[in-house]
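Dear support,

I submitted the protein below through the web form. The confirmation email said the job was done, but the results page showed an empty box. After a refresh the structure appeared. I'm attaching both so you can tell me whether what I see now is the final result or a partial one.
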Amino acid sequence: MANLRDIKARINSVKSTSQVTRTMEMISTARIRKALDRAQQAAPYKDAITRMLAQVASAGFDDSQPLLAKHDTEKNVLFILIASDRGMAGGFNITLQREVQHEMERLEAKGVKSQIITCGRKPTEYFSFRGTKPVMSFEGISSEPTMDEADRVASYLMDGYASGNIDRVMVYYQHAKNRVDQTQVIEQLLPLSEEQLKMPNKPRTKEALSQIKEEKYTDFEFEPSAVEVLGYLIPAYIRTVIYHALLDSAAAEHGARRRAMQSATDNAKEIISSLSRTYNRERQGSITTELNEIVAGATGMEDNH
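What the results page shows now:
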């Protein structure tokens, strides 16, 4: 059984830890509101350009365009993993990292090459440690993403896809449903199919794709042609989707860290309570033992007299 000094030291250690977790919880609570506001403010623009893209695609879709052409064979897949620079956010980072790693291993078993762009220090370290160096990485801005980051990622993947060096582009990130809950998002950015373009802001499931209704936007006249307008819109659409994913992930990061730190603080309180009871019990036992020794000593002295 640990002595009183050891138990007291343990209590003080847990208290110090709980102060840190409580402070981090408060910081994330203060930041999540701003991050959610940024993501919500960007959402209308994303929705608008997605609807516009769907309208133009209905008027003219030509898969001969570089960013609309579907490659005959899949030889190289690009993964975009958006996570965080810091840990202490529960399973926020590791869930996505393992998901991408397993998919890359599955593709490798089929003879398909893959490369990855990491947004956040944690995923960069995770894959670098395992021998997979990201082709592009961003660190230090996971909680405050910029449009420049989205532009660089979008330019790389569009150039690679248009030149034939990339056959498919997937993006992985956590979506902030609210201040508490996050959900994992896996979205295919390229190739864009005609069905996907006609489904603005809807889950791209097989069931949803089968229920698409053909809609022609004959009220619009395009100059230049709808196909050319579509070619101009797609790069803007891809940049917008990536930027919104970065903002959404930043909000989800703060929410995940707040919840993780709140749970850690609650656990620390339970440990402190348990250790305090143990301390008091041991202290009471020690006092009782000392009293018994004193009484026994006094009784012995009386007997000698």
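Response: this is the final, complete result; the empty box was a page-load delay. The longest strand covers residues 168-176.
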